[in-house]
């Protein structure tokens, strides 16, 4: 999950963990892209409006460079 707002990350991480989902949180799109070099998540939950690379740009980058991911918007 990626969101630049730490309080949103905290709430969503807690909700996902309480629902028995493993969750790794990131504060930027760049951090997600770095992590994708070494892992293949089942789902990526992303904020749309973030400073720097926004959620739509992140989606497009993943679509081009990580073809193993299935993307929904």
Automatic annotation (TrEMBL):
<dbReference type="InterPro" id="IPR001789">
    <property type="entry name" value="Sig_transdc_resp-reg_receiver"/>
</dbReference>
<dbReference type="InterPro" id="IPR050595">
    <property type="entry name" value="Bact_response_regulator"/>
</dbReference>
<dbReference type="GO" id="GO:0000160">
    <property type="term" value="P:phosphorelay signal transduction system"/>
</dbReference>
<keyword id="KW-0597">Phosphoprotein</keyword>
<dbReference type="Pfam" id="PF00072">
    <property type="entry name" value="Response_reg"/>
</dbReference>
<protein>
    <submittedName>
        <fullName>Response regulator</fullName>
    </submittedName>
</protein>
<feature type="modified residue" description="4-aspartylphosphate">
    <location>
        <position position="47"/>
    </location>
</feature>
<dbReference type="InterPro" id="IPR011006">
    <property type="entry name" value="CheY-like_superfamily"/>
</dbReference>
<feature type="domain" description="Response regulatory">
    <location>
        <begin position="1"/>
        <end position="73"/>
    </location>
</feature>
């Amino acid at each position: 999950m990626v969101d630049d707002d730490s309080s949103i990350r905290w709430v969503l991480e807690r909700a996902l963990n309480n629902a028995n989902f493993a969750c790794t949180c990131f504060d930027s799109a760049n951090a997600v892209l770095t992590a994708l070099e070494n892992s293949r998540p089942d789902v990526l939950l992303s904020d749309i409006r973030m400073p720097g690379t926004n959620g739509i740009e992140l989606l497009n980058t993943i679509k081009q460079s990580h073809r193993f991911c299935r993307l929904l918007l």
